[in-house]
Write a structure and sequence with these properties.
The structure is a single chain. By secondary structure, the chain is mostly helical. The protein has one domain. The protein is 55% helix and 0% strand. The radius of gyration is 11 Å and the shape is globular. The two termini are 14 Å apart.
Length: 62
Amino acid sequence: MERFILIAKYHDLGKLQISSNIILKPDALTEEVADAIEELKRNAGTQFDPVLVEKFVGMLSK
């Protein structure tokens, strides 16, 4: 989590302002959050760091 926070300061991922209550929420993701995840996946490797996108999406699926 600390790495995400650090990199978000220097990367477009920080523009999404994803709070930890979304990342750690126990129930299903909202449609808005699901759309944001799809946006990250679509732009991994161009706008977003693909390694971070993979790790972030992996965290959400746990």
